[in-house]
């Protein structure tokens, strides 16, 4: 079985694309969602996060996302340390998850596969791109975040131009209908390549 990475900048529509692949019968692992579950339920991960950020990282048994975001997004060193706790846990969880599936390929959806170098662990990479103004408006609607905060988050990610050089496939996420046609074509190519 082959492992395919699905990535793209914040607001590019990775999750929508992942759902399209899933509709075609491809098992998809959502790294952001699974990371949140691990941060909430994995006792080892939880203890390390509390040691790093403090007890306020959790409100009862729930992850205090706003507190964590405020702490790490303006502190690059703290963000790196948090990632060093969460990313290995997600990587291990993904490996266990992938073993349970029988398919020509599975997809791991994650935001910073190029930035953290883990793209090298995949058999192929799919990059999702979208116009910056669309990305900003999507995030503002989804998260209720200010444009300034979104632009700050975007600065932590590589520009699409740099990612395109390393991607095997590129999906231009503009309209849903056109995007789905691209997904179907990439799926066909991957099946042909890996079966």
How would you summarize the topology of this molecule?
Layout: E1 2-8, H1 14-23, E2 28-30, H2 31-41, H3 43-53, E3 58-59, E4 62-63, H4 65-73, H5 76-99, E5 105-109, E6 124-129, H6 132-143, H7 147-154, H8 160-164, E7 169-172, H9 176-194
Parallel strand pairs: 1-5, 1-6, 2-5, 6-7
Antiparallel strand pairs: 3-4
Helix pairs in contact: 2-3, 2-5, 3-5
In short:
With 195 residues, this protein is of the alpha/beta class.
Return the domain count.
2
Q: Return Rg in Å.
A: 17 Å
How far is the first residue's CA from the last residue's CA? 9 Å
> How does the major sheet shape up?
5 strands, parallel
Residues in helices, as a percent range: 55-70%
The secondary structure category is: alpha/beta
Question: Which residues form runs of ≥5 with pLDDT under 50?
Answer: none
Number of E-state strands: 7
Strand order of the largest sheet: 2-5-1-6-7
Q: Please state the overall shape, judged from the principal axes of the Cα atoms.
A: globular
- The number of helices is 9
Order of helices and strands: EHEHHEEHHEEHHHEH
CATH classification class of the largest domain: Alpha Beta
Named CATH architecture of the largest domain: 3-Layer(aba) Sandwich
